[in-house]
Task: structure prediction
Amino acid sequence: MTPPAAATVPGSGDAPPVLSEHERSVLGVVVYSCTVSSIRHAKDADRAPSMAERGQMLRMSAERVAALDGLGALAAAAGADADAAAEPFMGALGDFDQRLRPLDWAERLLKTHLALGLLADFCQALVAGLSEPLRGGLGGALVEDRFTRFAADALVPGIDADPQLAGRLGLWGRRVVGEEIGTLQRMLASFPPLLEGAAGLEDVHAALSEGAVTRMRSLGLRD
Result:
């Protein structure tokens, strides 16, 4: 499928920049994902077992706010409003958190690692079907390597040393993955414009499946 026409860049012509409904929807879900990540890191910080970990989580939450500000500027340059684009997605994750309550810090970290990671994979798959400069701007806002390293550093030593912990986290991780993928599939069904671009349903499903396997195996857990 041919990628949708890129939004007009300010200064590149006389026509005002206009986003298609698909582009606006993808912008909205990326903005929404940044708010989800920031809130999740802040909530996790409140349960952190040490002050050092609390501080790191709060800094990561602040970084997501900075990414949100960048998306606001990107949206404005494309003639759109980031908050308005994201508004329809409020509550789109439903009762995911209520259904998955971690028992301890390890389960909490793994839940965040998988849930936010799969949400980012979902968004990246949609963003990949856009044209530049929107694709690059949105894709850059989704990168969160610091938390990936933080989670691995905290979880892998215990998983490697304790087979019982590894088994418990493996079961928990598979449950998180199943719930998250189901939630994101329902989001696609609820917001048809998300799939009106070059990235199709198969692309999104492939990204989620690959992301789940990669994230579980990177921690030494069975997928």
Remarks:
- Residues 168 and 195 are 36 Å apart (CA to CA).
